[in-house]
User: What shape does this take?
Amino acid sequence: MDYYKILGVDKTADSAAIKKAYRKLAMKYHPDQNAGNKAAEEKFKEANEAYAVLSDPEKRQQYDTYGSTGFSERYSQEDIFRGSDLGSIFREFGINFGGGFSQAGGSGSPFESFFSQSSGCGPGSCGSRGFQQQPAKGQDMTMELWVTLEEVGTGTERTIALAHIGDRVSVKIPAGIESGKKLRVSGKGAPSQMGGQAGDLFLKINVQPHAIFQQDGTTLIYETKIPFTQAALGTKVAVPTLDGKELNVKIPVGMQPGGKLRLKEKGLPKGPKGPNGDLMVKINIEVPKELSEEQQKLLEELQEAGL
Assistant: This one.
């Protein structure tokens, strides 16, 4: 769903332009103005959802980063409307909802009940038509899902066994997923005890530590050791990449301990469509613990020469 297209604004629109566009659509497609018009009700519902996302800076940033598909995997309908103040917009139209509608989608509110039935009406705006009793939905559930750094780099698809319902489900894990993010699997949570819709399953992502790479956001860090003679004279080292390849990297003359070399766009992607971060190669200088007689003699000569 393209929220910008629904509201008829471009991606650079500010909050005032978004609010103005939403008000125009809400007045045009409001169910009280379009009794029995299912198409208008659908337009009204879409406008509500688009405004709930684009009027919230955090939700809008997530939508812009991950796109429609990635956003819907992270936000349920309840998440989208949680904290939205659609009620204040409708009050500007002179519509009085009574109390308790400042937080659209709040737990147990008529607004939440109304939207969960996909009626397309706003809080209190459709009278008694929107409040038919429905069986209670099952509880949402959260499971932890561990993924490898390689899977973060490319994205993948995993089949998850769901013991609570005796089922299996395939889940697409987008490239660039971060630890702590959640993927939503609709209807795979706890069954309803009243014959209603099952809850949703949320998969909380944890990224496994890697054997050779450290992760800092989209940046990968690889550490390697070279002898101090190679640090002084310059050399080349083989550096592995996350896709299993190796790069031959030049170490410049006079490399200092802890020095870093940047390999552009060899890190992790920023979201499914974002650019890749960099791979940082950290150089550690290896000092031998023991020397042969010849090595010691040569080093003493270098010391006398002022090195």
